[in-house]
């Protein structure tokens, strides 16, 4: 059903959405979507950094368990 929508159909949908919501509402909605995407990317980067830091902490301590007991 949706694979028959061409450029004229998309333009018609865009015009209808613009008429229904108005330019200001769409502008603010797109701004919120942009903020959401930015926050998501920041969260993903923070998660990666946290995982890498955890891996670095476990990689630092390579002393065997029986050697730790002696010290």
UniProtKB/TrEMBL annotation:
Keywords: Cell membrane, Membrane, Protein transport, Translocation, Transmembrane, Transmembrane helix, Transport. It is a single-pass membrane protein. One of its GO terms (cellular component) is TAT protein transport complex. Its main location: membrane. Part of the twin-arginine translocation (Tat) system that transports large folded proteins containing a characteristic twin-arginine motif in their signal peptide across membranes. TatA could form the protein-conducting channel of the Tat system. The Tat system comprises two distinct complexes: a TatABC complex, containing multiple copies of TatA, TatB and TatC subunits, and a separate TatA complex, containing only TatA subunits. Substrates initially bind to the TatABC complex, which probably triggers association of the separate TatA complex to form the active translocon. This is Sec-independent protein translocase protein TatA.
